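Intended use. Records like the one below are meant for learning the mapping from a protein sequence to its folded structure. Do not use them to infer anything beyond what is encoded.
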Amino acid sequence: MIDAEFVERLIRAVDESGIDTVEIRRGATRVRISKTPPPAPVRTEAAAGSVAGVVESPASGDPATAASVESTAAGDSGGDEQPATTLIEIKSPMVGTFYRAGAPGAPPYVDTGQRISEGDTLCIIEAMKLMNEFESEISGTIEEILVQDGEPVEYGQVLFRVAPV
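Structure written out for the chain above:
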């Protein structure tokens, strides 16, 4: 258990430093303090032939630990009445360096075609020498991984496309 006085001191230390986010785990208790507010839900228009949904807030109540999720439906502009396939876009909530695995030479957390469940680790984004693990907020199948290992990523950049179950 983490006491309130410790959390208050931690908040002051983060506020007075150049650190943006800090996470402490003691047993089953986890405290995450972040200066950066979570992104607000935004409605955006996608490319012609597709419709974008609303960015969903992560259900865990800890928006800083999960990537933003956006639902898109890719339609056929030919006018056919075929059902559209729906993919969920998982976006980076921060600027940093994308890593598919926990260590050099280790197997990646996820691969294309792999079935994932809510809570599965998808990747790590390193920001200011802090390694931030990102967990899935949805269950589905990884359809695309849009970033290469070791590449820099921007805030809001699409990292994965997932077919929900």
